[in-house]
């Protein structure tokens, strides 16, 4: 009798054990609430959103679009908010902080976030406001065959890049050997930021919202951007990362400063010609003007949780997004998409540039409440200089004036 | 009328004379994947207290209207005092965003509107004189540019005129200048936008004028023919006067539309060379900036601009109406 009970109990345990094993993938993420994601549109973000969608028990929606920054604040302002989470970067979290639409995550992290590494937690004023899942930076990428044919070494500084571009053009290898996302607006402003940081410039007078870029570092920055643009496709002011990548894939460019998250498609045989695939080589970010800080910025991408939603929805959102970045989902295919901050990630060849940037002590993009206003002013006012209609000092004075008008309106300056 | 027109305008007006409260900034520590840094953020509690007290924001009167992003009164006065002649003054004025946008918008409006009327009229006359069986097909064909959404239409052209696109390469070959780029020159970008504007809008004037041609009184035309009027004289003295009310109508709509030019600027990525008030609004509303008061001010200025443009046509229509009455 005793034996029979033992056998039965053992069988029951085995069966339930088997049941757990079978059903685990589906039951791994069980949520009880509404999840709605707003975020940028590139493969790594898709992978995270797909992971969130794998959860059962509640509705999970995702709106991934390049225009996410135009709608996320509005979509999180109402109560209840349309979006329960926004996937953002260190620049764009500022807009959400300024409008006070995201909630501190400390209690949810304590409850469900034990698997997160400490460096994934974005702490602002001692409160966890976001969970970072990937890092990004712009760095050098070059065509080893063209550089070899021209007899030049991969550049470590922008001065070497310029000299190399001249050699390539003079030898008739390529008419426009350099590439760059210099599209008027956000991209051009970002290139200014990189180069200005490389020159050791400070954007604001310490501790204030008063801009101070009209100085020697600013002028040197602009002169360098202009010099580089002479070796770019004449349409450079209309080329963002997509168009610049297209030029690269077509084999028209030999060297460029490009985002780490854009590297994988460049080496995709379905998009690039075989020789481009074989010779596209990643380098470290470059320095400029003898400085030691590389002319680039470090970025993280992460997710937040809305303030204006019920606690149940917030918990469901947290769980779903945790599933999106869970170490179990990080397979070989997903590992190639980005430099993940997730536990268990092993750097792939596509990640070398971003790691080089971090090892060179590149600075993170500043998270100041008024940095976005300066970014916009730079993007609009530098085009005159890039077209040769204005000198550098006048362009920088215009940027300062445009920024000051905007900062005054937003209440950052009196 | 009250709900859909008066209230929104009122709300925009209200927004344009208020700005957000002064931000209360505090020093804090930020930590993330790249270590900790001292940074600045907004003190949300203090800011919320200010907001609750005055939910509309800080009243600033017409400050936003007069700041550098809009009418730039102070800058204009300064430029006037410093410039050496009218040419120098205009060049400096062109450095201020509002006046630069107006420069392009007015050029665009006053070239596209007459050109699209002329082209539309010519197409209408041409199609009208065709055989009945050909007409239907050709009308559909001529309407295509209007059917294509403006953003798609401009994107298609944008790729064709790229320096590696089919039109861009063809132009480089024709002028044997490998550096020729439509997108890199302000003048050529304006020409391209105007050509696109005419291409997109001509079908509208064509279809309206074509409908008008169907009501042309045949006996008047016949008497003109008997009197020995040439084809040109028939058009000039019979057809055009008959279509005049329609032409006024098209001009009215098009002046309004062209003043608000927006899609081609986005589609052609031409913000570096040409901007408009509508583009300002779009730019102000984008994520990291969100200058709501500035966007509201640009909207009010657009309304004022459209009213000024339409005033002569409206006054004229009013007089005609009264004369007939």
Architecture blueprint of SSEs:
The complex is a heterodimer of chains A (414) and B (325).
Chain A: H1 2-27, E1 35-39, H2 43-53, E2 60-64, H3 68-77, E3 85-89, H4 93-98, H5 106-112, E4 121-124, E5 127-143, H6 144-150, H7 158-170, E6 178-180, H8 186-198, H9 216-229, H10 241-249, E7 255-259, H11 263-266, H12 274-279, E8 280-282, E9 297-303, H13 311-324, H14 332-335, E10 339-340, H15 352-359, E11 363-364, H16 371-381, H17 383-386, H18 392-409
Parallel strand pairs in A: 1-2, 1-3, 6-7, 9-11
Antiparallel strand pairs in A: 3-9, 4-5, 5-7, 5-8, 5-9, 5-10
Chain B: H1 2-16, E1 18-19, E2 25-32, E3 35-42, H2 44-53, E4 58-59, H3 63-66, H4 73-82, H5 86-93, H6 97-128, H7 132-147, H8 150-160, H9 166-174, H10 186-213, H11 218-226, H12 231-259, H13 263-267, H14 277-284, H15 292-324
Antiparallel strand pairs in B: 1-4, 2-3
Helix pairs in contact in B: 1-15, 6-10, 6-12, 7-10, 10-12, 11-12, 12-15, 14-15
Word description of this protein:
The complex is a heterodimer of chains A (414) and B (325). Chain A is of the alpha/beta class and 414 residues long. Chain A has two domains: 2-135 and 299-357, Periplasmic binding protein-like II (D-Maltodextrin-Binding Protein, domain 2), CATH 3.40.190; 137-297 and 362-410, 3-Layer(aba) Sandwich (D-Maltodextrin-Binding Protein, domain 2). Chain A is 45% helix and 14% strand. Chain A is built from 18 helices and eleven strands. Chain A has helices at 2-27, 43-53, 68-77, 93-98, 106-112, 144-150, 158-170, 186-198, 216-229, 241-249, 263-266, 274-279, 311-324, 332-335, 352-359, 371-381, 383-386, 392-409, and strands spanning 35-39, 60-64, 85-89, 121-124, 127-143, 178-180, 255-259, 280-282, 297-303, 339-340, 363-364. In chain A, strands 1, 2, 3, 4, 5, 6, 7, 8, 9, 10 and 11 form an eleven-stranded mixed sheet that branches. In chain A, helix 2 (43-53) links the parallel strand 1 and strand 2. The longest helix of chain A has 26 residues, at 2-27. Chain A is globular, with a radius of gyration of 24 Å. In chain B, helix 7 (132-147) packs antiparallel against helix 10 (186-213), helix 10 (186-213) crosses helix 12 (231-259) and helix 14 (277-284) packs antiparallel against helix 15. Among the domains of chain B are: 20-59, no CATH class; 101-286, MetI-like (MetI-like fold, Orthogonal Bundle). With 325 residues, chain B is mainly α. In chain B, the strands form two sheets. A two-stranded antiparallel sheet of chain B has the order 1-4. Chain B is built from 15 helices and four strands. In chain B, a hairpin with a 2-residue loop joins strand 2 and strand 3 (35-42). The model of chain B has no long low-confidence stretch (mean pLDDT 89). The chains are: A alpha/beta (414), B mainly alpha (325). Chains A and B meet through helix 3, helix 4, strand 4, helix 16 and helix 17 of A and strand 2, strand 3 and helix 2 of B.
């Amino acid at each position: 009798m005793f034996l029979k009970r033992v056998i039965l109990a053992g069988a029951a345990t085995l069966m339930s054990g088997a049941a757990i094993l079978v059903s685990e993938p589906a039951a791994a993420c069980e949520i009880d609430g509404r999840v709605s994601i707003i975020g940028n549109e590139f493969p790594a973000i898709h992978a995270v959103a797909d992971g969130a969608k794998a959860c059962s028990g509640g509705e999970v929606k995702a709106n991934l679009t390049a225009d996410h920054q135009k709608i996320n604040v509005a979509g999180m302002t109402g109560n209840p908010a349309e979006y329960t989470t926004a996937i953002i970067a260190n620049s764009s979290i500022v807009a959400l902080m300024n409008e006070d639409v995201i909630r501190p995550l400390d209690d949810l992290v304590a409850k469900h976030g034990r698997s997160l590494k400490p460096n994934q937690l974005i702490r602002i004023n001692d409160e966890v406001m976001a969970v970072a899942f990937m890092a990004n930076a712009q760095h050098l990428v070059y065509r080893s065959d063209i550089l070899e044919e021209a007899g030049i070494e991969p550049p470590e500084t922008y001065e070497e890049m310029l000299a190399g571009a001249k050699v390539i053009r003079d030898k008739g290898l390529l008419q426009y050997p350099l590439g760059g996302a210099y599209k008027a607006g956000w991209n051009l402003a970002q290139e200014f930021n990189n180069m200005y940081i490389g020159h050791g410039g400070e954007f604001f007078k310490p501790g204030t919202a008063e801009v101070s870029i009209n100085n020697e570092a600013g002028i040197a920055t602009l002169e360098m951007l202009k010099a580089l643009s002479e070796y770019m496709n004449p349409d450079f002011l209309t080329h963002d990362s997509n168009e610049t990548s297209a030029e690269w894939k077509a084999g028209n460019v030999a060297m460029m400063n490009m985002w780490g998250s854009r590297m994988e498609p460049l080496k995709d045989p379905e998009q690039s010609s075989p020789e481009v695939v074989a010779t596209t080589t990643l380098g470290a970010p470059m320095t400029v003007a003898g400085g030691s800080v590389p002319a680039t910025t470090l970025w993280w991408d992460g997710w937040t949780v809305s303030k204006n939603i019920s606690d149940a929805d917030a918990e469901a959102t947290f769980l779903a997004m945790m599933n999106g970045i869970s170490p179990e989902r990080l397979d070989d295919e997903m590992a190639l998409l980005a430099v993940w901050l997730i536990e268990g990630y092993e750097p792939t060849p596509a990640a070398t540039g971003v790691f080089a940037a971090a090892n060179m002590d590149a600075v993170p993009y500043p998270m100041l409440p008024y940095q976005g206003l300066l970014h916009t002013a730079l993007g609009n006012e530098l085009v005159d200089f890039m077209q040769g209609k204005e000198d550098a000092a006048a362009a920088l004075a215009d940027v300062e004036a445009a920024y000051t008008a905007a900062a005054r309106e937003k209440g950052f300056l009196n | 009328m009250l709900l859909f027109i008066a209230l929104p305008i009122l709300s925009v007006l209200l927004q344009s004379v208020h700005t957000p409260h002064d931000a209360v900034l505090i020093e804090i520590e930020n930590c993330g994947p790249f270590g900790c840094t001292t940074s600045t953020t907004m003190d949300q509690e203090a800011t919320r207290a200010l907001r609750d007290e005055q939910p509309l924001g800080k009243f600033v009167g017409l400050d936003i209207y007069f700041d550098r992003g809009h009418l730039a009164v102070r800058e204009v006065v300064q430029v006037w005092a410093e410039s050496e002649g009218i040419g120098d003054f205009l060049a400096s004025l062109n450095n201020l965003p509002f006046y630069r946008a107006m420069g392009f918008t007015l050029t665009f409006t006053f070239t596209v509107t007459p050109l699209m009327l002329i082209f539309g009229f010519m197409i209408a006359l041409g199609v009208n004189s065709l055989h009945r069986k050909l007409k239907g097909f050709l009308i559909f064909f001529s309407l295509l540019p209007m059917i294509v959404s403006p953003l798609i239409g401009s994107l298609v052209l944008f790729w064709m005129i790229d320096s590696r696109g089919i039109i861009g390469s063809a132009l480089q070959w024709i002028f044997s200048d490998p550096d020729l780029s439509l997108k890199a020159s302000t003048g050529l970008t304006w020409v391209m936008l105007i050509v696109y504007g005419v291409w997109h809008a001509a079908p509208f004037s064509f279809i309206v004028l074509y409908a008008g041609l169907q009501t042309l009184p045949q006996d008047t035309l016949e008497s003109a023919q008997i009197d020995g009027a040439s084809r040109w004289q028939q058009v000039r003295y019979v057809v055009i006067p008959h279509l005049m009310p329609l032409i006024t109508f098209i001009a009215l709509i098009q002046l309004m539309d062209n003043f608000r030019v927006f899609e081609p600027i986005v589609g052609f990525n031409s913000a570096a060379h040409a901007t408009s008030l509508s583009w300002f609004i779009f730019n102000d509303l984008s994520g990291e900036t969100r200058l709501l008061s500035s966007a509201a001010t640009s909207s009010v200025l657009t309304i004022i601009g459209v009213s000024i443009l339409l005033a002569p046509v409206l006054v004229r229509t009013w007089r005609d109406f009264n004369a007939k009455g």
